[in-house]
């Protein structure tokens, strides 16, 4: 990985992107830290998801006298954390690459949200990274064990850490997940305590912290760009701006994996439905609908599961023109069939 390569007559070094602020990248190489731009050929011939992001290993040609470099290619990624682009755009956006551990950071205050946690879990499963749930601000919560039990019910096989930067609870245990120079990323909404946790892990006031609104316990972005830093323990950690939107991509399998205990429960109950192909909507003698009505199936999890699957399917359809055309053809066929039946009546 450290060998110099000759490409088109120019020496190229491997490096890793450690900072990303809009279109400005910083790359660490054997020649030191270099401010990097993207070669025009890479920028204009690659898809947006193939362009360098924080955590990527790249090949670049250094200009040592200027302390700058040009990135020519992105090396294959081991993992890739992706979300839907913010707003009305329907493309996918890479948040970070080559991540070993994803810390899903959530406060135990009023902003504690199990549906959001399930969304984070599904996206992390899709990325290939290992999820770890971090419940912050334990010193401000009257009953942290209740929050932990609620999170455990949503993610029975995922590690959970209760932390407090104020008294140091859980900080050392969290750092251990990045032992052996592993790379982690913190994902969470604004005000979840990511910057405060980063400072505690770094044992310094590296990241700015902000106040949380006393009205809704929602914070503002205190991290404004993505940056990879080295912890005293040797691990690497990427801090990301708080994400108010974390749209699903076409990750149907990952959604089912993150709801594995829940889908297993539904499959068991569905065996008692009258019809084998029961959709659990309006069919008679539906055991799943009965279980939802009497509380055996958690309605919140059911609704969120369906919401994430619909969102993921919609995104997959938007990114797959053939899928859109097939759906359109099927809709036309059904419309014709409906008109034919009305004429026969």
Automatic annotation (TrEMBL):
Residues 312-333 have a biased composition (Basic and acidic residues). It is found in: Cytoplasm. Binds 1 zinc ion per subunit. Zn(2+) binds at residues 273, 278, 280, 286. Residues 312-345 are annotated as: Disordered. CDD domains: YjeQ_EngC. Keywords: Cytoplasm, GTP-binding, Hydrolase, Metal-binding, Nucleotide-binding, Ribosome biogenesis, RNA-binding, rRNA-binding, Zinc. Pfam families: RsgA_GTPase (PF03193). GTP binds at residues 136-139, 188-196. Its cofactor is Zn(2+). The keyword DNA repair does not apply. GO terms for biological process: ribosomal small subunit biogenesis. Its EC number is 3.6.1.-. Residues 88-246 form the CP-type G domain. Its main location: cytoplasm. Transmembrane segments: none annotated. GO terms for molecular function: GTP binding; GTPase activity; metal ion binding; rRNA binding. GO terms for cellular component: cytoplasm. One of several proteins that assist in the late maturation steps of the functional core of the 30S ribosomal subunit. Helps release RbfA from mature subunits. May play a role in the assembly of ribosomal proteins into the subunit. Circularly permuted GTPase that catalyzes slow GTP hydrolysis, GTPase activity is stimulated by the 30S ribosomal subunit. Monomer. Associates with 30S ribosomal subunit, binds 16S rRNA. This is Small ribosomal subunit biogenesis GTPase RsgA. It comes from Acetobacter persici.
